[in-house]
Every structure is written in C-alpha cells, then in structure tokens.
Amino acid sequence: MADKEIVFKQIFEANSKKIFHLCYGYTGDDDAANDLLQETFLKVWQNLDKFRNQAMISTWIYRIAVNTCLTYLRSEKRQAKDELTPDIAESTMEEVSDKNEKVALLYKCISKLEESERIIITMVLDELPYNEIADISGISEGNLRVKIHRIKQKLTELYNQYERL
C-alpha cells in the first residue's frame, strides 16, 4: 500500500463515525448519510495532497462534510419541489412527525450560521467533549464555552423566527 492509502485509511477510521453522525443529522436518512459520507471521503482523498496542516485534519474533514451536506440539502429541496405533485407533497408532509419537523427546522437554522459556528454546534450535537472541540477548532476551552453560548442564543433566535412563520 502506498503511503497516501495508509494515511487515508487511518483518517477514515478515526473520523468516519463522527462524519456519518453529522451527515445523518442533516438528512435523517441512513442511505443519504452513507452517500454523503462516501462523497465527503472521496473529496478528502482527492484533496489530501493539498491539506496543509493549518487546521487539524478533523476540522478540515468536518468543513468538507458540512459543505457536502448543505449542497445536498439545497439540491434535494429543488428536486422535491420539481418532483412532487401537490397531493403527494401534502400527504408526505402529514406523515412527517412533529419531532422530525423540529429536527429539520433545527438543521435549517444551523445552515444559516457561519461556517465555523456550524462546525462547532454540530460537534456539540455529536456530543464531542469540549476539550476535543477546542482542539479541533483551534480555540481555548474557555473561549469555546463563550462561543457555544453565543451560537445557542443565535440558534434560539433563528428557531423562534421560523416558529412564528
């Protein structure tokens, strides 16, 4: 095995569970999450030579995954509008549980945050320890706690705006 393959395999083993979790959080669907996981790691493989160690590799992978998920969600919305007749769309919407709607709304709100905030709050939702999130994001744990508090406030405001609509 070439060095790149060995390094890639280690990166995949160390990060794939977290990235699957992230993708599942955005989609709520095993198959879509697996597809997005594969797409993310395909991009990691293709760009591994360009990775310059300015950030931790896990942060870099999180960024790729978040952007891959957001691109997917944008294209899904376009397809859903094009493909569904009003009747099917209506009955499908009724089948979606209240909890799923709230989770979908939460992720819609998260997508409105800045990239660094999206990455941090996703890791919080993935229940990563704060010290690990601090390492990945390259900020002190104290600063991270303040940032998380502000992100949660921002998310609450966004969520409440949508709830009123």
UniProtKB/TrEMBL annotation:
UniProt xrefs under Pfam families: Sigma70_r2 (PF04542), Sigma70_r4_2 (PF08281)
Claim: Transcription is one of the keywords in the record: yes
Keywords recorded for this protein, A-Z: Sigma factor, Transcription, Transcription regulation
InterPro entries: RNA_pol_sigma-70-like, RNA_pol_sigma-70_dom, RNA_pol_sigma70_r2, RNA_pol_sigma70_r4_t2, RNA_pol_sigma_r2, RNA_pol_sigma_r3/r4-like, WH-like_DNA-bd_sf
Keyword Transcription regulation: yes
All copies of domain RNA polymerase sigma-70 region, residue ranges: 12-78
Span of domain RNA polymerase sigma factor 70 region 4 type: 105-155
Protein's name in the database: RNA polymerase sigma factor
SUPFAM superfamilies per the UniProt record, alphabetical: Sigma2 domain of RNA polymerase sigma factors (SSF88946), Sigma3 and sigma4 domains of RNA polymerase sigma factors (SSF88659)
NCBIfam families in alphabetical order: sigma70-ECF (TIGR02937)
Family, per entry: Belongs to the sigma-70 factor family. ECF subfamily.
Superkingdom to which the source organism belongs: Bacteria
